[in-house]
Amino acid sequence: MTEQISNGLPSHMPTLRVMPMPADANVHGDVFGGWIMSQVDIAGAIPAARRANGRVATIAVNSFLFKQPVFVGDLLSFYAEVVKVGNTSITVSVEVYAERNRLQASTVKVTEATLTYVATGDDRKPRQIPPLEDITTVG
Ligand SMILES: CCCCCCCCCCCCCCCC(=O)SCCNC(=O)CCNC(=O)[C@H](O)C(C)(C)COP(=O)(O)OP(=O)(O)OC[C@H]1O[C@@H](n2cnc3c(N)ncnc32)[C@H](O)[C@@H]1OP(=O)(O)O
Hints:
Layout: E1 16-18, H1 33-52, E2 56-66, E3 75-85, E4 89-100, E5 106-119
Antiparallel strand pairs: 1-3, 2-5, 3-4, 4-5
Residues 41-42, 45-46, 49-50, 57-60, 86-89, 116, 118, 120, 124-126, 137 line the site of Palmitoyl-CoA.
InterPro entries: Cytosol_ACT, HOTDOG_ACOT, HotDog_dom_sf, Thioestr_dom
Protein name: Acyl-CoA thioesterase
Family: Belongs to the acyl coenzyme A hydrolase family.
């Protein structure tokens, strides 16, 4: 999905960056998969909400792959991209990279996921995705 640069991160700006803390890890020091999933959900919701021009709800986690463990103190970068737009739904791909052993500048892809969001109204019911030319959210 993404072009790499020399430090192992994609060349474009991440959607979200965050560092897990000790409370996010299990007794072995691995960060909980559920914590990673919640961050992925937030990262994926950002381009989905932009494309929907408003509120979205997650309807499905289509795929989720924990390729490598995440450790406390890793600097995580989330790259989220819309891959499909339906009548009321938007599917987003999210890739997560961890910068760890920061003195050695080691970067690994830790997670890949695909999620589907539904544009919803104030009544929490699905609404049509607006045409691109009507989008007012920036960035
Ligand atoms: C300025 C910049 C802005 C940035 C701003 C950022 C904001 C960033 C905030 C972060 C915030 C965190 C974001 C977390 C978001 C939550 O965590 S939301 C909480 C968890 N999710 C929920 O509680 C949702 C519960 N489900 C529901 O309420 C209802 O199912 C829904 C979502 C309203 C949909 O209603 P429904 O009647 O079930 O929908 P239905 O018409 O059957 O299907 C709707 C669409 O979903 C598709 N769909 C249905 N089932 C599936 C499935 N299994 N798989 C795939 N697609 C499916 C359908 O094909 C349809 O798509 P279209 O063909 O219309 O494109």
